[in-house]
C-alpha cells in the first residue's frame, strides 16, 4: 500500500509539472482597424463631377495590422491606400474618388478594406450622397425604337432641366434628312421643350442623328442630343459577308442564317453561286429561322467581291445578295 501511494504521488507530481511546462504562452496582441468617419456624405453634387475624399484608418490594436486589399464595389470608384502595414497606433489614408458621370439620384458606394483584423476582416468605408443635374436634357437621347412603316411623321419630346430652373433654349442646330428638332414652350411660356420628328419615308436600317441644343446657361451653352430609330428589315441575313480565309485545298464549310424581321414566315427558294462544285443545303430551324449550308467552298481569289444570290418568297426581297470576301 505504501508503495502504491508513493507511485501515485509521483504520477500526480509529474502531471502537475507537465501542466505547468505546457501552459500556453500569452499572445502578443491582436490588430484592430478603425476609422473615425467610415461614412462620407457628399450631399448633392452635379452628375458631371467627381467626388474625392480621404479616409483615415488607424490600428488601435496591440499587434501589426496587415491590409491585403482595398476593393471598391464598382468601377465608378477608385481607391488607393498610403500604407498596407500599420503598427499599433499608426495611421494610413485611403484616397477615394467617385465618378458621378451619367448617374442620377441617391448614391451609396462602398470600399472594402481586407485585413488580418480578426473581428473586422472586411471593413467597409462608404461614400453617400445624391447626384443631381445642374443642367441637362431628359431623356439624354431620343430613341424612336422600331419604326414599322407608315407615311406619317413621328414625334417625341425631350425637356431642358436645370437645378435652378432658370435655363432656357436659345436655338437647336443640326442637319439631318431623317430627323428635325425644334424648341417649344412649356405651360409657363418658357422655351424648355424639344420636339423631335422622324421623317418619312422610313427606309430600312438604323437611323442616327445628333442636334446641338444651345442654352442660356453660362456653364453649358451647348448640349448634345443624340437621336436614333430602327426601321426593321423584312428578313435579316447573318453574316452580311461570307469570308474565305487561308489556304484550304479542299475548300471550307460556311453557312448563312436567314432570320425573320417584319416578315415572320418565309421560304428560301434557292441559291445562286458564282462557282460550281459547292454543295448547298437549306435547313429550316425553329422560330422561322432558316440556315443555308455550303460544303467545300473553294478559297479562290477570283471569287473576291463576287455575289451569292439567295432567292426567297418575300415581296421586295426576292433576291438577296451576299458578297464574298477572300483573304489569303
Describe the structure in your own words.
The longest helix is centred in the first third of the chain and has 20 residues, at 2-21. The chain has 1 helix and 25 strands. It is mainly beta and 328 residues long. It has one helix at residues 2-21; strands at residues 33-35, 39-46, 50-59, 65-72, 77-81, 85-86, 91-99, 105-115, 122-132, 135-138, 142-146, 154-162, 169-173, 179-185, 191-198, 205-215, 222-231, 235-238, 242-245, 252-260, 268-272, 279-284, 290-297, 307-312, 319-327. It starts with a helix and ends with a strand. Residues 10-26 have low confidence and may be disordered.
Ordered list of secondary-structure elements with their pairings:
Blueprint: H1 2-21, E1 33-35, E2 39-46, E3 50-59, E4 65-72, E5 77-81, E6 85-86, E7 91-99, E8 105-115, E9 122-132, E10 135-138, E11 142-146, E12 154-162, E13 169-173, E14 179-185, E15 191-198, E16 205-215, E17 222-231, E18 235-238, E19 242-245, E20 252-260, E21 268-272, E22 279-284, E23 290-297, E24 307-312, E25 319-327
Parallel strand pairs: 2-9, 11-17, 19-25
Antiparallel strand pairs: 1-3, 3-7, 4-6, 4-8, 5-7, 8-9, 10-12, 12-15, 13-16, 14-15, 16-17, 18-20, 20-23, 21-24, 22-23, 24-25
